[in-house]
Structure formats: C-alpha cells, structure tokens
DNA sequence: CGATGTGAATGAATTCACAGCA
DNA sequence: TGCTGTGAATTCATTCACATCG
C-alpha cells in the first residue's frame, strides 16, 4: 500500500500504539495480534492494520506482530528513530514544567535551549540550562542544530516568539500559548491546548446528564 | 438543525472559536462574519456555520455574528457557562504545574482538591491547597461536589487513581498519565498526551525534507 | 443586498469481508 | 489454520451552492 497521504488521525494513533506496545513489552509479551492490540487501544483491529499498511508490511500472516519489531518499525515510520533538538521560548510556569519533564529526552525530544526576553530571567539557570535572550535564537539554532521550536509564552507574545524562531530557520513549531499564530507554510505548526479536553469532558458530561 | 450527534472535531473547533472571538473582543470588534472568523481560525467559513448550526441559530442574516453574544452562546453550548469542580490526583511535576496554572479557574475549571498516596507529600500545601490521601476521595467528592478527575500520576498508578475516582462517583476523567486506563462507559474519559503533537511535527518535518 | 443557515455533493476515514500467505 | 493486508462498502465530515431572511 505505502501511500503518499497519511491521515492526521493515523499519526495520533501510532503514538498510542507505541505506548501500548511498550507496555506489552514490559509485561514480556513477544507477539501480539491486531485484535489484541486493538482491544488495548480501544480501536477497531482493521484500523490498526490499515494504519500500519500506510508505512509497510510489518506483520506475519497467521501469527501477528513481533512487539519489539513493531515498536521499532513505527518509530522509524514516525521519524522518531533519531533525536530532535528543541528550543523552548518563554520560561514561565508551563515552560519550567516542560524543562523539568524527564519524558522529553526519553522520547527523543531534547530541549537544548531556553529563551526568554525578560531581562530578569535571562542568565537564570533552570535544570542546568541557562536562559538566553530570544534575540540570540538565530545564532543558537545554527550552533545547536535546533529543529523544533516550543512556544510557551503568554498569548500576546506568541507571534513574536514564532517570528524569532522562523527567522532563525527552525523547521517546526509547537505552540502551547493560547493564541493563533501565522507562519509560512513550509513551517510545520501544531497547536497544543489541553483545555480542549476539559471542554469536551464538560460538554459530554452535561449532555449525558440532560438525557436522564 | 439542532442535531443529536455532534462530531468530536466540532467540539475541538468551538474551543478555537472562543479563543479567537475573545481576541476580537479585546480588539474592540463587535460584529464578525463567518468569513472573517474562518480566516482567523484557518478553517472554511461554512464549516463554522455548520458547527454553530448544531446548537442553534446565533447569527443575523446580512450582518454576521455579535462577538460577545456568540462567545456566550458557544460557552452555553459547550456547557462551560458554569464552574466545574476538579480533583487532581498525583502531585508530581506535571500536577504541580497544573495546580499553579491560573488559566484553569479563569476558564471555569476549579481544582478544589489535590490527592496523592505518597505519605511524604500528604499534608504539604501547594498553591494554598493541602495534599490529601487518595483514600479520602469518596468523602471529598461528595463534600466538595467534584465533577472531573484529573490524573497526573506516573503511568503505573493511573489505573488505581482512576479506580479511586470512579468509586468516589466522579463523572469524567482527564488522563495526563501515559497509560491506557479502563473505565465504565458512563464515565467520560479523555487522554491528554502532548507528545502526540511532537510526533506529528517530527513526522511532517522529516516527510517534507525527504521530498526535496 | 449581504451574510446566514442548510440540503445536496463531494471527499475522507473507518469498517467490512475476504483473498492470500506463513 | 489463523491472522495479515487490502479492495469495496459504509459511515462520517467537509465543502459547495443557493434559498432565506434581517
């Protein structure tokens, strides 16, 4: 199959598959069928087979998938069989929490630079990293080979942070600030807003209640 | 129109609409067309009209939408025209960051209880809130009228946290822990994993690079 | 007139059902 | 035999196009 266009939802599910497969691996399970994996991920089994088919043939007919091999294959498919160097812009509450979050480097996203334009913060050391003025982004992106910019500024400064990152030659931006930003279309942009999940929960809970 | 079933994607977009409309409001814009709103949200204008039509008729033909009225209508549609009381379970790095995050109460999600089963943490005060043993959840859920449970434990303790919350009579769960959990189907469950966004960025960046 | 609200048309994603292979 | 891989069928979401109404 090996298609050109891959649904956005497929990418999201592949991340879940890795999570669940890692769990299987820890439990000592070597082989898993799409049926069993599907159940653990709460999806349809042919959904899994189709998602994987976009990238290649990873299973063995009549047997299933070898857990470790499948993890490796999915990681390669997603492009996380390597490290990605990240710049974090905006060292407030959320920024600090991300800097402290051990999971980032464990998953291959290494935060190599922390930037802020607040003179009171510049020079401060967080998690062994010195906070640097955002104006130094162009130099640092080149020096450290930074790939992805992570915006954790207040909303009103998100666009400026994006501009710095884009000017510095970053390839992708993950925006945690609650603001829409404009970027040229060769820059990949992702919005992260976990309030979406709270809204969805609130909506469904109230909806369920109103049906009684 | 006022339909029964509402697409998941619609809920997610409504959250974006609120964000952008609030921005318009701050700028002093009173009336907005679906065309203009669509541009700011990077979606199609009929998408917006259809999303809104699921909940009612909020616009004025030939004019557009009154910004403040539309914010109010969407909030009511989503069920966030009221406060939601939340219990946070697992006071680690991420849990603390959420407790400190001012935006929660501002958006109507009030964290009223912080729970952990680590005896070293119990009794500690974070952001004016005393950390309480998770075993006290049933009492506290009733006492404080808690609606939504927020799980920020390590993955291996997520299911136990969920069990406590479910037993205590919570209505919905938002799981930040990188683990799948099982809940009865009357409990609304949302998974939050911001690594999904990093994976998606990595995938697309590498994909774009390989096309040159 | 001008922008909404909405059926109808299109497009995308998911699921079914089974051929094909270890 | 049993489970993968995949075209076909179905379901779901988005966009179009225009009737409708302030």
Automatic annotation (TrEMBL), chains A, B:
Residues annotated as domain CoA-binding: 79-180
Record Gene3D superfamilies: NAD(P)-binding Rossmann-like Domain (3.40.50.720), Winged helix-like DNA-binding domain superfamily/Winged helix DNA-binding domain (1.10.10.10)
Binding site for NAD(+): 90-95
GO-annotated biological processes: negative regulation of DNA-templated transcription; response to redox state
GO cellular component, one term: cytoplasm
Oligomeric and partner information: Homodimer.
Protein name per the record: Redox-sensing transcriptional repressor Rex
